[in-house]
Amino acid sequence: MSAFEKEQTFIGSFIHTNDRGQLIIIDHGAIHVKEGKICNVVINPKPNDIKGDVTVFDNNVFLIPGFIDCHIHAVQFPNLGVGYDKKLLEWLDTYTFPLEKKYTNKKFAEQVFNIVVNQTLMQGTTTACYFASLYSEASVILGQVVASKGQRALIGKLSMDAVRDDNYFESIDTSVKNIKKFVEEIEVLNSPLIKPIITPRFALSCSMALMQELGKLAAEKSLHIQTHISENTDEIKAVKEKFPEYSSYAAVYDEARLITNKTVLAHGIYLTDAEITLIKKRGASVIHCPSSNTCLKSGLCDVQKLRKEEIKIGLGTDVSGGPSCSILDAMRSALDVSSHLSMIKDNYEALNYKDVFYLATLGGAAALAMDNQVGNFEIGKEFDALLVDTNASPGLLNDLQNNTLEERFQKFIYSGDDRNIVQVYVNGRKVK
Ligand code: GUN
Ligand code: FE
Questions:
Q1: Residues with Cβ within 6 A of ligand 1?
Q2: Which of 23, 103, 313, 314 could make an S-S bridge to 138, C-beta 3.0–4.6 Å?
Q3: Atom 9 of ligand 1, nearest CA residue
């Protein structure tokens, strides 16, 4: 019997949210997992609630749902922390595209992707929505590495047909042929945890004809779609110049049927009211990437406004626009940006630790249209979880403070790190 086929019961404290983003704290409960799926949740369990392999956790640890990184560029890992002297468009040309061109080397790809998947799992990312490579072979390698390490993921081969002097693009015919082949190759891996995602890089990298082909393919195969939108003011200006016949950035994607209820739009800092209305109507989501938005000086995204408009929002590390692959770091960046906004805007209530925890778990799951599958510990969902021990790093000083469970949870959100994530489960299987 493989690890995730078995029947397991986890007994201890757990914390998650409901779909209204309210925090649910259970001091003593049991989660019964069968073949990776949660089949029962009991508060104050009795002996006959306990089935299969039993794991009883100490009082000083607690389970939370696995983190969901809704926007991360696997190929950009070797540039973590480099190049924040430039803003988006110059940063892409100077640092990002030259690195990404190296992924014709399959050995290099394999080396990097092994580190990417190990590191993200160790940081508690149980689901990742990856931008992989322009090159199909490297993108399939990412799929293979993810599948072998047991992470849940959407894997996107980039589509880009805008001609560049450095040859970093594909002709439209090659691009369409390669994306169809890539989708099949990911499907052939036959891993229940991974899926392909259609990935036009952004409007500046793609012709309308290519985007329309991608929209058509996504519709035919009911695939997820991801791209960037309204991240930087120079980018928005260039999109207007490239596509003058459309009323907005979002309207360009909409013309190609790229905005659907399975679309994730990264950044969305400068979306107009009309664009927000369109995105809401289509049921697409916006991915907040606060660390990247700060490092590349892209702007301060008003997440509260998007929340009020009932846009689905997830969190992204946006490696390497962001300097860390940790969703905990992204949560803190989101708190910082929101706190800064509250100091410069009237009547603006900053996000709190509960809000960012929701964004990192169930909110991210909803943004990826996977909230019937993961995001919290509801019966019927797959068991993706982190075991948190706030005593695992000396700095949090719980022993001296006798903190409550909710205080320890706050300490983890604000001041914890990967040392405090002592176990990681994906689909019931322990991967850390
Ligand atoms: N827009 C187009 N490509 C990229 C990218 O790689 N990173 C970020 N942050 N924005 C983009
Ligand atoms: Fe990005």
A1: 73, 88, 92, 96, 201-202, 228, 231, 292, 318, 321
A2: 103
A3: 321
How far apart, in whole angstroms, are the C-alpha atoms of residue 52 and residue 50?
A: 7
Ligand 1 test: best mutation among 86, 88, 101, most atoms within 8 Å of CB? 88
Task: Please give the Cα distance from 384 to 370 (Å, whole number).
Answer: 12
Q: Which ligand is nearest to the CA of 76?
A: 1
Cβ atoms of residues 51 and 403 within 8 Å: no
- Is the pLDDT assigned to residue 396 strictly greater than 90? no
pLDDT given at position 351: 98
Q: Specify the ligand 1 atom closest to the Cα of 76.
A: 6
d(CA 360, ligand 1 centre) in Å: 21
For a substitution probing ligand 1, which of 69, 90, 96, 234 has the most ligand atoms within 8 Å of its CB?
96
Question: Sorting pLDDT into bands at 50, 70 and 90, what band is 399?
Answer: low
Alpha-carbon distance 176 to 197, whole Å?
A: 14
Beta strand extents in 44-135 (DSSP E only) = 53-56, 61-65, 67-73, 125-131
Q: How far is the CA of 361 from the centre of ligand 1 (A)?
A: 23
Round the average pLDDT of the chain to a whole number and report it.
Answer: 96
> In a 3-state reduction of DSSP, which class is residue 15?
strand
Centre of ligand 2 to C-alpha 87, Å, is: 13
Q: pLDDT per residue over 196-233, tens digit each?
A: 999 999 999 999 999 999 999 999 999 999 999 999 99
pTM, whole model, 2 decimals?
Answer: 0.98
The token pair that represents 190 in the structure block: 């036959």
pLDDT at 1 over 50: no
* Distance in Å, CA 349 to ligand 2 centroid: 27
Both tokens of residue 136? 């199909």
Joined together, the tokens standing for residue 100 give: 């990404």
Q: 288, 359 in Cβ contact below 8 A?
A: yes
290-330 pLDDT, tens digit each: 999 999 999 999 999 999 999 999 999 999 999 999 999 99
